[in-house]
Amino acid sequence: MSVLRFLLGRRARRRWVHLILGGALAMPYVLVGELVLGPVGGSANVSGSFPLQLLAFVVGLPLAALTSLFPLTRPLEAGAVRWLCGVDEERLAFGPARTRAARARTAAWFTLHLGFGGIIAGMSLAVPPFAAVLIVLPVFVWLRDSRLGLPEVLDQGWALALAPVVGVLALLALTACAAGVGVLLARWAPALLGPAPEDRLAAAEARAADLAVRNRLARELHDSVGHALSAVTLQASAARRVLDTDPEFVREALAAIEDTTRRTVGELDAVLGVLRDGDAPGTAPAPTLAADLDGLLRRTRASGLPVTARVDVDPGALPPVLSREAYRIVQEGLSNVLRHAGAGAAVTLLIGASDADLEITVENPLVEVPASRAGGGHGLRGVADRARLLGGCSRAGPEQHTWRLYVRLPMKGSASA
Length: 417
What we know:
Elements: H1 2-8, H2 10-37, H3 50-67, H4 73-84, H5 100-136, H6 157-193, H7 197-241, H8 247-275, H9 289-301, E1 307-311, H10 320-341, E2 347-354, E3 357-365, H11 378-389, E4 393-399, E5 402-410
Parallel strand pairs: 1-2
Antiparallel strand pairs: 2-3, 3-5, 4-5
Helix pairs in contact: 1-2, 2-3, 2-4, 2-5, 2-6, 3-5, 5-6, 7-8, 7-10, 9-10, 10-11
Pfam families: HisKA_3 (PF07730)
Protein name: histidine kinase
Catalytic activity: ATP + protein L-histidine = ADP + protein N-phospho-L-histidine
């Protein structure tokens, strides 16, 4: 059963079609070879001479190798190999051959495809009719007297009896040749049509760049939306508790909720604009320490979280990239307190400079260490990623009776990070 699948299975039939297409592509080159060899054979038409036809086929193959240098050759051949030969898409290169080595491999593949395809296509045209005649020859003896060019040995009885066997063997040989050559081409295709080392490197760099963008967007979504949800939840909870006793606080909480959600929707639109194909990024500016530190502290305090902040640097003098990443780090530090310590936990925020580094410290009293903090959440990993990308460092954890987040960021070299 496995032998029949190898010879006549769906994949084998598709590869046979691929070879016949190669033979069809070889025909124009064979015709050019016949025109070249016409004067050599003493006639303008060499179709009557099999040796000259074979020589014309050989002459046409170098011409095929030259025309394979066109940019579309490799994409078209790779597509045909993928669909007809069953080669995985990841093992093929679908772009034009750019380097000399890639063009040489493409020329070698195109020559092999047309060469083997021409041979198998010729056999596919000649062998089946001849085999059919041999198979029915004992029944239709009059075929021996026709002008089919049958060998004289078939006039003998033993040869006539063996003719059907020879016919069946000829069909099996044709099928085996087509299947075997199809397997060889499928094995050679990744080496000749596959990506070169430089192509793989470029693809890896593109995937790494795409992954970096996705990770950055994930951090932005986590920090902005996560902080907003934590703040809004606590603000709404605090307003509900004092709804009847402190209307002024309720108004401030509702105003803070409105401001927080409006800003977060703008940031969310900016991030989603990057994710949508063909859409321009949103127009909401990325928040920075210089632009929104006071607003961030105000909205956090409106959640019922007392924040004591000391800023010993001028936020407006920081490089834009550093100011933006520092804002997100401060935002995440305050969000952690909102999520894990809850409203009422006193927070101390320190932003200063030491040895040309920006230092950010967020501290709050530690009542107990929640289990979720033991391994660090996505937010703390995001803080570590931001610090590492800027060449800095971070650490977070309990210190005596205090939960402490400390981040150090170099201020030099951050302008173009």
